[in-house]
Write a structure and sequence with these properties.
Elements: H1 2-18, E1 33-34, H2 79-83, H3 87-105, H4 117-143, E2 155-156, E3 176-177, H5 182-200, H6 204-210, H7 213-229, E4 231-251, E5 254-271, E6 276-279, E7 285-296, E8 302-308
Helix pairs in contact: 1-4, 3-4, 5-6
């Protein structure tokens, strides 16, 4: 019984540490794609709304510069940060796998191993539990930090709203910073809702007016995939719960603003017979994403990238 319990616990730990995150069906499908100009492959600074590193771009039409040609603070300079894994997790997983291999070599099976290996597994599992509980407590603490007073909604309009030492590139020159006004924050909140509404109605014409051509191409592909599978996703009652400005800069005649947003919504997917196949029409779900907006010549902001948070 003790060995069985140990095997079950170890399997659960492995599942928690290795299983991919749940992909929501909202606009973007829980993916990371688009372009952030010269900062596309650099991590946006962390904020109170999104205190952890953003997921790397899975798809982008912006070419990735090689390390030999990338400018400091741009391109591939920060790419290794995206793939970095927690040292604690790596050490624990290495210990689990190493102990299992040792047990196999000495004829005790994957979960047998050396004398007292059960206590070693118990210690490792306890460390993992401490890690997950600590991360959960930190997220709860971070999420309760109030957004600083500023623009409309719950945005922190301070361009330095990023958490200390949350830079997105090397220590070299930075692009010119720009000022984001309360009207800009209001536009970001409206775009969040407009994109989800156009997505839900499969309104590509509206998406073409409020998103970059690159983003529209990704949305169109995802909506076509829905149609081919005979399902339709609907995102309604979108509400911005908290937001922070991560970066705002200008380059090559364009202005960019990257913001972290935590929002709630009704996210439901139905089939051709209007039967719910995912989500609930009566339960709200929450998401935290990092959206980047772009504009030229002080024109209207367009959505140019969506990134998930870790």
């Amino acid at each position: 019984m003790r060995r069985t319990g140990l095997i079950v616990a170890s399997a659960a730990v492995l599942a928690l540490s290795l299983a991919p995150g749940i992909a929501f069906a909202r606009a973007g499908g829980g993916g990371s794609f688009g372009s952030r100009g010269g900062m596309t492959y650099s991590a946006p600074p962390a904020t109170r709304t999104a205190p952890y590193a953003a997921a790397p771009m899975e798809r982008s039409m912006t070419p990735q510069q090689s390390p030999s040609t990338a400018s400091p603070g741009y391109g591939g300079a920060a790419a290794p940060a995206f793939g970095a894994r927690s040292g604690l997790m790596s050490g624990i997983m290495g210990g689990l796998i190493g102990a299992g291999i040792g047990g196999m070599l000495f004829g005790h099976g994957m979960f047998g191993g050396f004398s007292g290996i059960g206590s070693v597994f118990g210690l490792l599992i306890q460390l993992l539990l401490v890690f997950f509980i600590g991360r959960w407590v930190w997220r709860m603490f971070a999420s309760r930090q109030p957004a600083m007073a500023g623009g409309p909604g719950l945005f922190n309009r301070n361009a330095a709203g990023a958490m200390p030492n949350g830079g997105g590139g090397g220590g070299g020159p930075r692009p010119a910073q720009i000022t984001v006004t309360p009207a800009d924050f209001q536009a970001f909140e409206q775009l969040l809702k407009a994109v989800q509404a156009a997505w839900s109605s499969h309104d590509l014409a509206t998406l073409q007016r409020i998103a970059s051509p690159e983003m529209v191409s990704y949305f169109s592909e995802q909506l076509s995939d829905q149609a081919s599978r005979g399902v339709r996703n609907s995102v309604t009652a979108v509400n911005l719960d908290q937001g922070d400005l991560s970066q705002a800069w200008a380059e090559n005649g364009r202005e960019y603003a990257t913001v972290a947003m935590r929002f709630s919504m009704i996210d439901v997917t139905v089939d051709g017979a209007n039967r719910v196949v995912d989500g609930s029409p009566s339960e709200r779900v929450s998401a935290t994403e990092i959206w980047t907006f772009v504009r030229a010549n002080r024109g209207s902001w367009l959505l140019s990238a969506i990134q998930q948070t870790r």
